[in-house]
Design goal:
CATH superfamily: GroES chaperonin
CATH class: Mainly Beta
Largest sheet: 6 strands, antiparallel
CATH topology: 10 Kd Chaperonin, Protein Cpn10, Chain O
Helix content: under 10%
Strand order of the largest sheet: 6-7-1-2-5-8
Number of helices: 0
Distance between the termini: 28 Å
Order of helices and strands: EEEEEEEE
Strand content: 35-45%
Number of domains: 1
Radius of gyration: 15 Å
Structural class: mainly beta
Number of strands: 8
CATH architecture: Roll
């Protein structure tokens, strides 16, 4: 894939979340309220300040991150679906399972 997000944007591969409860009840997408999880595939160089300096990104390629269900824009690259969002839309980086 040849895609590099600009500035403070991040390309994320959305990971599937559990669609069943522990009791086996299937939860439709519209009822899910928890944040989504994804893997960072590519990052931009960082946000620019008013004086032109580049602020480095806090996330890096390979990080597993949490973000809001409606964050970002869905895109298709090489027949695979991704989400592009600003780094500020990411809630946090998960540290292991």
């Amino acid at each position: 894939m040849k895609f590099k997000p600009l500035h403070d944007r991040v390309l994320i591969e959305v990971l599937d979340s559990d669609e069943k409860t522990a009791g086996g009840i299937i939860i439709p997408d519209t009822a899910k309220e928890k944040p989504q999880e994804g893997k960072v595939v590519a990052t931009g160089s960082g946000a620019r300040t008013e004086d032109g300096k580049v602020l480095p990104m806090d996330v890096k390629v390979g990080d597993i991150v949490l973000f809001g269900k409606w964050s970002g824009t869905e895109v298709k690259i090489d027949l695979k679906e991704y989400s592009i969002m600003k780094e500020s839309d990411i809630m946090g980086i998960t540290k292991g399972k």
